[in-house]
Amino acid sequence: MSLFFLLNNSLRRPFLSPPPLAVLLACVMSFNVDQKNSLSFSGPLEDMFGYTVQQFENSEGKWVLIGSPLSGQPAKRTGDVYKCPVGKEDNKCIKLDLPENTTVPNLHEVKENMTMGTTLVTNPNGGFLACGPQYGYMCGQQQYISGVCANVSSSFQILNSVAPAVQECAKELDIVMVLDGSNSIYPWTSIIDFLQRFIEKIEIGPKLSQVGIVSYGETVTHRVNLSQFDNTADLLEFVKELPQQTGFKTMTALGIDTARKEAFMPERGARPGVKKVMVIVTDGESHDFHNLDKVIGECDDDGIERFGIAVLGDYNRQNKSAEELQKFIKEIESISSQPLRDHFFNVSDEVALLTIVDALGRKIFALEATTGNFTSSFEMEMSQAGFSAHTSSEGVLLGAVGAYDWNGTVVMYTAGETIVPGKTQFYDPETEAGYEGLAGYLGYDVQSASTPDGVLYITGAPRYNHTGRVIIYRLNEENNIVVSQILKGEQLGSYFGSVLQTVDVDGDSYTDLLLVGAPMYMGSERDEQGQVYVYKINQLGKFKHEFTLKPVNQSCCTAHSASCTNKNEPCGARFGTAIAAVSDLNLDGFNDVAIGAPFENDHRGAVYIYHGDQTSLKEKFVQRIPAGGDGEKVKFFGQSIHGVMDLNGDGITDVTIGGLGGASLFWSRDVAELRANMTFDPVKINLQQSQYQCEHSGRKSMCVTTEVCFVYSVKSDKPKFDSDAGIRYDLTLDALRAKARASFINSDDKNDRRITRSFTIKDRERKCVQETFMMSARLDFRDPLMVSLEFGLTDEDRGPVLDESLPRSINKTIPLVDCGIDGKCIADLSLKAEPSMKSMMIKSNKDKFDVNINIRNSKDYAYNTKVILSFTPNINYVKVEPEKGCTLNHTKVECAVGYPFLGSNVEENFKVKFEVNPKHIQEVIQINVTATSDSEELASTLSDNTVQISIPVKYEAGLIFSVRPVDEHIVVKEGEQFASVFNDTRMIGEEVNISYTVARAGEVVTPPLDLTVTYPHLSPRQNHLLYLTHVTTSPRVKCDADRWINTDKINPNIKKPNPNKETLSVFLLTCSAELYCASFTCSIPEAEISQVNVTFRVWKPTFIKGEFSSLHMLVNGTLGIKNTNLFELSSGDRTRIVKIQVSKEALGGIPIWVIIISILIGLLILALVIFALWKMGFFKRKSRDYTKEEMMD
């Protein structure tokens, strides 16, 4: 499996393309990333120029590094990285020729298609790391794709090559093929084909590998000595005519022993110090199997690594049993070296041998981490180390998705050592036992998180269990993996974990967030919309899901779409293909995030900007930067993103966005804060106050002066030569009314309710302006007068942009009053409030009640009258009837009454509805109701402005109480024998398992409970009835049953049962003075579900010796509530009864005399029935009486 299969079909970061020119960008919602002015870099689309981007700075200047993984087409396609200058007249990109200078000594390197530039990251030392994960090399005829990274200095010089998965090839091997040539091998030509195909993969020579061949049947023959051939071609020619040994016996032990003693002798070409390998091919169980253990032990002593191949053709042709087949396989497994997964093969027949040639070759020529043992290192040879990379002060993390059969791993590379985790270190053997995790692609992306307790390492496995997961781990003192948390994907094929990004939002050097991309998450229309999961780290160092980011929904064409055509598939956005933590863009002190959606708009692409907020993100994106163009040459904008540097010297971070065919550097504009405030003189409008009268155009009325003050400040610290800003503002009167009740005196517009002005302001200057408006002579007082202010910059395309978090408009109201010349309104409010229920038994969260409210004003107008209800958190506000302007703030509701005023001698009635909140349990519902207004009120009349309501409540415990089984039936045979000694509880009698379950039902919590289990323990004559053996419970449930469990301590002690014979004639055995019952109690805490499992044994000796025919024993489970002040149980939830029926069956069945008497009685009853029917004439046939005429006829 190649890297490009992963990239193109599974979307690591699909090879996509951004627009080569910034002018193609469409105009959209914008903040301070300047979409109209940018610097563009272009390159060959077919080279995937722009697949990765990084901002870079050194002593020579500032650069954009651009990865081009297929650079070098159409020949070698090695890939490369380009350096593109910023701030110079010529911005032509220069290829760094990294593949040519990235090399690992003493290897036969394969750099074609090495995809250099697939991974590109800067490091803390001022340089960068560029990786080619498909870098390979040859070991014999085998090519291994190990991956390599170039560690490049700040001056673009390669310091060293990082290739942790590369190891020295095992070039010199002495291989002896031990072939079963007995008559059962058929056809022999298949063995020849296997030999030829296998030898083709071996470089044979004096300094390379050697091959010897031994065949056996009843005897052993040396067909080829190790030193007989010095090249592969000659040996291939020879084995074409290799004869079959033949023979009726399979002497496998003899063949192996002969090869050990003779084939590996110096006289036959064996070389001292060279690895000895033996390949045994056989199709049947050996006739000398008794010698195998000794022979194999001697092979181990001689250091011979053995590969066993079981050919099952003869077993299948003769239809041998499964037991015989399994015995044969076990024998070949015993011949093979350990571990078996690397050294044992089985094939269905001789022809199928060809199917294992490649696997066998890879195992034999696997890279040798050590010598002298039988462990295969065929685990990292296809690892593709550098598929992902992350640099930090601790070292370099390299994702190696191809390691361990594509399970993947993460390699940590430091100056001192290279840490390669074992195959199972990322998996929990307890919870994932038996799961191979094949093709999970662990290491698809890698990150690290800084916490007060140390560093957390993070890696994604997007194909694990098909839904993907993210593993968060630490390294202990022995550098072993310690998994601390696992985050799991939720949709099949979403590629959850393929993109990771940690973010330090507040800049305190500790990680705040982890963003996990699932770019192939399917939307509702089965389109790949993608989404990004945001996790926040808590004080325990665990990541908790906060929210999920999603793109603008993309409308995809269907077969029925008439006016829509998608030129490219699949449709969607693939939001989350690239996630970048970008330095503070809007200069608010919090770092931000950019997310690419390269499939948007028919693969044109887009990038979303999210601002940081304290230690999290704002869920709504502040800017969406789309690509333009025709969608043919310009595609996949947002494939790669980087933004950590100020590249034009204005003190603000700039953003680089790339893809296939090009990249663009977007300048960020400065951010300015513009704050505004309005004040009025007078603050209330009262036409009767003469001091505010004015005259305009021959009309007299009250005038109001509005003062609007602006404060302007630029956020960046860089000095500005031209820091003046043009400000434009609009003032509008009564904007929500069709006709305004006031007009501006100095309006330049025919519409005198609105005025527009502009002015200039300097950085950090405060400037105020005044405008006067005149009121109409006749006013209505239904609502206050609204004054609306809208403001912004006169030129939004140049200079700083305004901070998007600050408002661009203000609406303020001036109350209108009619309270006489002195302006004083003295009201007298009186309030009544009555609940619809005096007390409550709460059964569910749907329980509701009302508070009926009456409010009356007896004096002057009460302006802005409100009724405020403050209540305890055990209830929730629902609504008010009839509808009023009510606002809810946690546990307080404010309702406007008679807005804008409650008139003199006017009253209003309304009803406030509440429902219970089962998440808060309290004994009383408290509601404080208060009436207020902006008018004055005398202290002597305030006493009736407040009402306190108190409603006592109880809760019906919301639970389901169940028991299994409801009844049991035990049969005892009369005269049945029982053991004279009990040394195990299983000898007592049949087992009865009773399971009690208490589960939460609904929203009301399940309170702490007591479950009391009562059961018949001893009969009137002190014989055991039910014998308690076990009590198990859910966690946190505690039972006091120990004194009743196994009271006779059977096992280890013994018990001699000697029951007293007694008559058990009572049909129902219940607890009474004569019958002794035992009981125990279990304390059940608050929980979603709790279980108590009770196990009894029916004491059979009592019932065998007792006189009875059938009886029932009752086991009672009774629930009780500890806190009866708050909770009650419903009558149906208090008791559960289990009936255990015991019946005695007569020995030998029904006696013969009973059968004979029953038959005679049956016959007698039948005779009596027949006699009765005869007497009634039942058996007489009715005859017809004929007349004389009928007789004559």
UniProtKB/TrEMBL annotation:
InterPro entries registered for this protein in UniProt: FG-GAP, Int_alpha_beta-p, Integrin_alpha, Integrin_alpha_C_CS, Integrin_alpha_Ig-like_1, Integrin_alpha_Ig-like_2, Integrin_alpha_Ig-like_3, Integrin_alpha_N
Compartments, record wording: Membrane
TM region positions: 1150-1174
GO cellular component: external side of plasma membrane; integrin complex
Source domain of life: Eukaryota
Membrane topology recorded in Swiss-Prot or TrEMBL: Single-pass type I membrane protein
Positions annotated as FG-GAP repeat: 35-93, 371-422, 482-544, 561-619, 623-683
Span of domain VWFA: 174-360
GO MF annotations, alphabetized: integrin binding; metal ion binding
Gene3D superfamilies (UniProt xref): Bicelle-embedded integrin alpha(iib) transmembrane segment, Integrin alpha, N-terminal, Integrin domains. Chain A, domain 2, ntegrin, alpha v. Chain A, domain 3, ntegrin, alpha v. Chain A, domain 4, von Willebrand factor, type A domain
Keyword Disulfide bond: yes
Keywords, ordered alphabetically: Calcium, Cell adhesion, Disulfide bond, Glycoprotein, Integrin, Membrane, Metal-binding, Receptor, Repeat, Signal, Transmembrane, Transmembrane helix
GO terms of biological process kind: cell adhesion mediated by integrin; cell-cell adhesion; cell-matrix adhesion; integrin-mediated signaling pathway
One family name in Pfam for this protein: FG-GAP
SUPFAM superfamilies on file: Integrin alpha N-terminal domain, Integrin domains, vWA-like
Keyword Calcium belongs to the record: yes
Main location per the UniProt record: membrane
Cross-referenced PANTHER family: INTEGRIN ALPHA (PTHR23220), INTEGRIN ALPHA-1 (PTHR23220:SF22)
Family membership: Belongs to the integrin alpha chain family.
Protein name per Swiss-Prot or TrEMBL: VWFA domain-containing protein
Species this chain originates from: Scophthalmus maximus (Turbot)
Source taxonomy: Eukaryota, Metazoa, Chordata, Craniata, Vertebrata
